[in-house]
Design brief:
The complex is a heterodimer of chains A (75) and B (237).
Chain A: E1 2-9, E2 12-19, E3 23-27, E4 30-32, E5 35-38, E6 46-50, H1 57-71
Antiparallel strand pairs in A: 1-2, 2-5, 3-4, 3-6
Chain B: H1 9-27, H2 37-45, H3 50-62, E1 87-90, E2 115-118, E3 123-124, E4 137-139, E5 146-147, E6 160-162, E7 170-171, E8 190-193, H4 198-203, H5 207-210, E9 217-220
Parallel strand pairs in B: 1-2, 2-4, 3-5, 4-6, 5-7, 6-8, 8-9
Chain lengths: 75, 237
Amino acid sequence: MIVQEHFDVNGRDFIRTYSDAGRYVVRDGVPYGEACDPAEFGRTYTEGELIPPEERMDEMAAKAEAYDILMGVSE
Amino acid sequence: MALDKLVDSSQLDADLTSVANAIRTKGGTSAQLAFPSGFVSAVQAISTGETDYVKMAYTTRTYTGRLASDYAFQIPNLFFPYGKMNAIFLPNATTASAYSTAGVQAFGWCTNLKTAVIGKPYYLGQEVFRNDTALTAVDLGSTATRFVNAVFSGCKKLDVLVIRRNGVCALLYTNAFDNTPFASGKAGGTLYVPQAQIAAYQAATNWSTILGYSTNSIQAIEGSPYESAYVDGTPIT
């Protein structure tokens, strides 16, 4: 299912669109992992193919954190 | 000297030989090591960072002729992690092949990398420049069509990004700029694109958010220091 959340950037209303099923959100043939747009644009998205596991945010974040620890990279 | 322990000299010799062999193996030598001064000097002579150099040398030899050609970006993890490399100049590199894996972490954790020129990329794979903490400027030439996730994440000094394509390079995740000057609440960065594309970037999905942060700016390549040169000053040929 497509999920939309509002957020604010410098007083401007934006909408973040993503799939709660781990799929791309697609507009004009472009598959986004997540899509953030000014709310007034009124853009709509459809669900696309499943995002590959290696590209999913949670897996990537966990892996990156492990690398950072190993490499001594701190925030 | 106090003698308060019994020592099995044979066992001690064996133990010291074992330690000496380990030092010799690590240091790449077969020399006899006198105890303790020889052990100390041998350990001190083992150069640090040698792994990076060896890997880089191996990579260069294996892919000679391709680093500046069409394949440099197609091999996942090719350069990861090569801390000694401080500049990449690949004016002919492309990612025309495998969509989902091209370039994954290709230059990730290159912590001395300051500038990068990838002249003809089609697609920037996941985490291509992740945690390149010294990286300040990247030039992506005129062909890049899309970024995936975390491409520049952790590049804390990245404040110049040049995209020469006459069309918007789709930003598939805003986290491409996490923990960079382009991110929310950070110092800010400048995106250089063709004059004719500025409005399109300002309206583009995800780019509109990044460019919505007041600290960031978008400028025309035309008339900028990058109009006729890559970010490292090397002219386009």
